[in-house]
Task: structure prediction
Amino acid sequence: MKIVVLNGSPKGEISVTMQYVAYIRKKFPGHTYEIFNVAQDIRKIEKDTAVWNTIVGSIRSADLVLWAFPLYYLVVCSQYKRFIELIFERKAQDVFAGTYAASLSTSIHFFDQTAHAYIHAVSDDLGMKYLGFYSAEMKDLLSEVEQKRLETFASLLFTAVQETCPVQRENAPLVWPNYTYVPGTEHEPLDTGTKKVVILTDADGNSPNLAAMTDRLLKIFPGPVEMINLHDVNIRGGCLGCCQCGYNNTCVYNDGYTDFFKNRLVPADIIIMAGSVHDRYLSSTWKQFFDRSFFNGHTPGLGGKQIGFVIAGPLHQIPSLKETLVAWADNGGCHAQFVTDEVTDSGELDALLDALAVRLVHCAEAGYIPPRTFYAIGGHKIFRDNIYAGMRFVFQADYRYYQEHGMFDFPQADLKTRLLNAILIPLTKIPGFRKKVFADMKHHMIEPFGPVLRNACPETPD
Ligand SMILES: Cc1cc2nc3c(=O)[nH]c(=O)nc-3n(C[C@H](O)[C@H](O)[C@H](O)COP(=O)(O)O)c2cc1C
Result:
C-alpha cells in the first residue's frame, strides 16, 4: 500500500508530529511512505511547478493520504492552509478524488476537534474517502499505552483501506449566496464618541460583497476609523513554530507584523474583521494573521475588545469555522458578533451591518465582555497547567504574565474550600447529618445569593 503523508508542520522533518508518523512507519514497514513537507516548502510549491507536479503525481498513485499536522490556532497553520487553497485554485481536486484520507495531529488538545473537522470537510470537498482522525497530545508517544493506541489506530486504518471500506460523505457541498450586495445610500451616521475603530480586511478584489460590506461600515462610522488591508501589512511569512518568542515575546521575523499588531490593533476599542470563506475557513492570509499573533504566547493580546466578524460566504454552513472564531474571541477575552452576506437582499444586509455597528459601539461604551464560556474556561485550564509545568521553560514570558495576573488559580490554593471540605465531608458519614443536609440541598445551593439579592436594591421588596 502506498501512503502519502502531507506534513503540515512549518518545521518540516524536525517536527513532533513527524515522530508519530515515524513510529507508524517503524511498526508497519511493509508499506511505502512518501512524505512531503508541504507547510515548510509552501513557497517552492507555489512558485515551482515541478515541485507541485511531483506532489500531485505521487498523490495520484496513493492508496491513502495522511494529513499530518500540528494544531495552529484551532486549525492548521497558514502554510498548510495555503497548500489546500492551491489544490482548489489549480483545480487539482480530481487528483485527490476517490482516495482514502485520514488525519493525524499533535497539539495540547486545545480545539483539536475543530482542526480535524476542517480537514474532514476539505477531504469531503475533494471527493476523498475520509476514514477518521487521531489527535495526540504532544507527549503521548512517550507512554507505552499511547504507543499501543497509535499502533492500533494505524492498523485499523490500513485494514479499512485494504478492505476498501465504504465511506459516507458527512459535509454537504457549500452553497454560496448568489446576489451582489449593493449598499443603500441611506444610513444614520453613528456617534462613536472616543471609541477607536479599525476595519481589518483581506479583500483582494475577488469578493465584491466583502468590499461592499466594509464600504458600508466605513460610511456608518464617521469617527476615527482606520481601514487596514492585511495585504498591505509587511508580513514576510507564516509562523515558523520555532517558539523563540516564548522567552520574551519577541518574534524571529524582522517584519512589520509586531509593530502593526501593537501600534495599530491594540489601541483600538472595536475591530471589524472582514474576510470571505475560502474552502472551509477564511483565507490563508487571515490564518497567517492569527498564527503570527503567537508572539503574545498564551496571553490575551487583544483582550477587552469588541470584535465584529463580517464575512462573505456560507459561514453558517461551516459550524466548525464559526466555532473557531467564537472560541478565539472568547479565549482572548474579547466579545465577538457576526454578520454575513447569507441574506436574501441588500436591504436586509444594510440593516444588519448598521445594527452591528450600533451594537459594537454600545458594547464598547458599556465595556461589556460576556462571561467566558467553556471555550475560554477550558482553554485557561489547559494553558494554566501547561505553563505552570511542562511548557514553563519555553514560555517564560507567559509564566511571568500568569503570575502577575493571578492566573495560576489552581483550586488547591483555595484554602477556605479545602477547610470546609475537610470538616464537612467527614460529617456526612453521620447518617442524621447527611440526611438533613442532602434533603435540603436546593436551599443550601441558593443560600449564598441571599445577601446579594437583598443588597441589589434594598428598596425593592423580595
Ligand atoms: C503558532 C502556534 C499555534 C498553536 N496553536 C495550538 C492550538 O490552537 N491548539 C493546541 O492544542 N496546540 C497549539 N499549538 C501547539 C502545537 O500544535 C504543538 O506544539 C504541536 O505538537 C507542534 O507540532 P510540530 O512540532 O509537528 O510542529 C500551537 C503552536 C504554535 C507554534
